[in-house]
Amino acid sequence: MKLLASDFDGTLIHHQENKSYILKEDKQKIIDFQKAGNLFGVCSGRELRGLLNQSEDVKFDFYILHSGGIILDQNQHVIYEKLIGKEDMKKVIELFDKNVCWTIVAGNKKYAMNPHSRIPPYDLLIKDVDEVKEDRIATFSAHFPHDQEAARKCCELVNKNQTIVKAFQNIEDVDIVLNGCSKGNAIHYIQQYYHLKDEDINVIGDSYNDISMFDACHNSFTFFSSPQEVQVHTKTLVHNIKECIEKIIPE
């Protein structure tokens, strides 16, 4: 049995203007991969709802959410969870200008502060972080529309000044989770959960926040179109998920 963990945005899901979609050839190859007795799951910075409303009819065998902060089984039951204290989140947010756009996932709600049009849907608009009711936070993210350099500097500042949390850059967004949580550590957990050998674990992603899972797995894939800084952490370059699966299980 083989396992493939895929990043979501830009890897499984492609975005074009106001449309999000899964490549038809990728979808069919994933279905065939699972029918053959293999496991396919998602490894993302998103929350569960943000995955389900765009994943069409692809069924996941596991869900790595919030960049490794929460892991669910195929029935969406929690099998791993690490949460951030609200006060620790506040210390991070206070490092930045008051106009920065933030989204915060806590409980079953998603809060937004200073939102802009490029962020995913949210439940509650807040003006101050103290309006968040929950004491434990799954993840929170800073968003810098059309400004990857600002996102890079944000990620660098958080990781330089904080030890409780860890920041990961995802193009123009920065996802922040409890220190010790990462996509890479989540892949190790999933491997142990399914009792699989190293050679049976495969991962694919397209951006900087996928590097930890590339480094955690020998069988790592990214795209020819991915940044060079990402490509150097992977073993194999492909054009799409279909080609990735064909290399995992040659026909």
Describe the protein:
β2 (about 15) and β3 form a beta hairpin. This protein is globular. The strands form 4 sheets. Strands 7-6-5-4-1-16-17-18 form an 8-stranded mixed β-sheet, sandwiched between helices. The protein has a 6-stranded mixed β-sheet with strand order 11-10-9-13-15-14, with helices on one face. By secondary structure, it is of the alpha/beta class. The chain starts with a strand and ends with a helix. It is about 25% helix and about 30% strand. α1 (about 25-35) runs parallel beside α8. The protein has 2 domains: about 5-80 and about 180-250, Rossmann fold (3-Layer(aba) Sandwich), CATH 3.40.50; about 85-180, Hypothetical Protein, Haloacid Dehalogenase-like Hydrolase, Chain: A, domain 2, CATH 3.30.1240. The mean pLDDT is about 95.
